[in-house]
Specification:
The protein is α+β, with helices and mostly antiparallel strands and about 120 residues long. It contains 4 helices and 5 strands. A 3-stranded antiparallel beta sheet has the order 1-3-4. The chain is globular. It starts with a helix and ends with a strand. The model has no long low-confidence stretch (mean pLDDT about 95).
């Protein structure tokens, strides 16, 4: 399982496809911002993705300083995870705080889509 997963992660065209799929799945949710991928510039060894300038989800003090409502953010995060699992059947398989950024207004921006899972 580990070998299969690692081989899949080093082909960055697959990661680009994951970003595009995820973007489509959350296109109607203004609380989630999936970074834009320049698909025509991506190759097996190169991934070109929009720069995200946000606050790491683990930086609680910075989130509070930015005036972001933590309860609302927690609700958004919960909805984000539940939609992935129970609606889309396609989920971010590495959702640690370094891969989730908080943008102004409490929007969530996930990054690093190399590991994704699917539920049928």
């Amino acid at each position: 399982e580990f070998a299969r997963s690692i081989v899949g992660e080093i082909d960055l065209t697959k990661e680009a496809e994951n970003y595009l799929r995820f973007a489509g799945e959350f296109a109607d949710d203004e609380r989630i911002h999936v970074p834009h991928v320049e698909r025509d510039l991506c190759t097996e060894k190169l991934l070109v993705v929009e720069w995200i300038d946000g606050i790491k989800a683990s930086e609680i003090g910075a989130i509070e300083t930015a005036g972001i409502d933590r309860k609302r953010l927690a609700r958004t995060g919960t909805d984000f995870v539940l939609q992935q699992l129970f609606v889309n059947g396609h989920f971010h398989a590495d959702p640690h705080p370094g891969n989730l950024f908080v943008l102004p207004g409490g929007r969530i921006a996930p990054i690093d889509m190399g590991q994704m899972g699917t539920l049928d």
